[in-house]
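hiii, so i know i said id send this last week but things got crazy w the move. better late than never?? heres the sequnce for the chain we talked about at the cafe, plus the structure i predicted for it. fair warning i was half asleep when i ran it
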Amino acid sequence: MPYAFIQDVPADENIYGRIRELLPTETPTGLITHIAVKRDGGLRYIDVWETEAAWQAFRDDHLEPVVEKVLAGIGIPHSHADVSFEMLDVIDVWSGAAI
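okay and structure toks below
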């Protein structure tokens, strides 16, 4: 069964863009879809992964080190205190062409 979540972060499009620039350009192993949208107070990520282990590997090996580097570069402490995370029960995934 796919592993999916919603994550709300207090970041803006500029911070997101800096992070994406430093992540690998190829699709991470196990990623089915990643959507980043604006919301009041920051951004919301909606992710679907083949497995929780695939998400954790990407997060630990790539995402967290890059987020740490970007935030340190603009003087923001890397804290998860203002991040909300909610797991989702996936019943279907239907993906189309990327934007």
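btw The longest helix spans residues 52-73. thought thatd interest u
miss u guys!!
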